[in-house]
Design a protein that fits this description.
Elements lengths: L6 H24 L11 H11 L9 H32 L1 H14 L8 H8 L4 H24 L3 H9 L4 H36 L7 H10 L3 H32 L5
């Protein structure tokens, strides 16, 4: 097994990778391999992003569009966690519930979140409900699957000891299954956040009147490629921040439970 990199080494290698990426990006339009109209340089995109911080485009500034997007994401993600985690634990504990729900869940989870866009548009129009529904569709399956997996991996001796003490079903799930499943649940939340954030952008491209995705669609219609790329950069940065926060939480939980590598 290779030795883990130090924090300084991780930052250094990450900076090298970023520098190479930006260098290639800068070179392509500068030397004329790709027209500036279709691939603006990083400098052009950065300058445009600075302008969008204070100058509205498609009805709002870039921070405002990001705020609208994040509110939708957080709502859909929270609903997915609040419903998916208990459902996964219940399926993991009650075999009857597992047998009833599993066929329906397994069928629905293979439907891509973007496939729900027509229904979201018909049911909710361009309001908040449509994107929230699509985010929920993306984030819900990982929450259920990882909670279910965590419940199934609980030490049988803990369950046997609790049963010998006459522990009821509700206490069994809240005091045994849930605490023991936390590492798996947090790992699932990280996956769910990534899928939910990606689903949000796809939803906003079609069923929203604000948000980063909507801004990108309006920019594409105006052939404002630099604005489109500003939206892409903003999506990547916010997604990275969300993932980093959840990763830190996952690592902290695993360290507390003695599961860290």
């Amino acid at each position: 097994m290779q030795q883990r990199l130090s924090w300084a080494e991780t930052v250094t290698y990450g900076f090298i990778g970023l520098a190479v990426f930006l260098g290639v990006w800068y070179a392509l339009p500068t030397i004329g391999l790709v027209p500036q109209q279709f691939l603006p340089s990083p400098v052009t995109v950065l300058n445009r992003m600075v302008v969008l911080m204070t100058q509205p485009f498609a009805g709002a500034t870039l921070p405002a569009h990001i705020g609208y997007s994040f509110i939708r994401f957080f709502t859909g993600f929270l609903l997915a966690a609040l419903i998916g985690i208990p459902l996964g634990l219940i399926m993991g504990w009650f075999r009857v519930v597992d047998e009833i729900v599993a066929p329906i869940f397994d069928g629905l989870r293979f439907i891509a979140p973007i496939a729900w866009v027509p229904f979201a548009a018909l049911w909710f129009g361009t309001g908040v409900g449509g994107p929230v529904m699509i985010i929920f569709a993306g984030a819900f399956p990982p929450c259920v699957i990882n909670a279910y997996r965590g419940a199934k991996q609980v030490d049988p001796q803990l369950i046997e000891a609790a049963e010998m003490l006459g522990t009821g079903h509700l206490r069994m799930m809240t005091e045994i299954l849930l605490p023991a499943s936390v590492p798996s649940i947090v790992a699932g939340l990280r996956v769910a956040a990534g899928l939910g954030w990606q689903s949000l952008v796809g939803a906003e491209l079609i069923v929203a009147s604000t948000g980063v995705g909507f801004m990108m669609v309006q920019a594409q219609g105006n052939v404002a490629t630099s604005t489109v790329m500003c939206g892409m950069v903003a999506i990547g940065i916010v997604g990275l921040i969300i993932d980093m926060l959840l990763r830190r939480g996952e690592e902290a939980i695993r360290r507390r439970r003695g599961l860290a590598e």
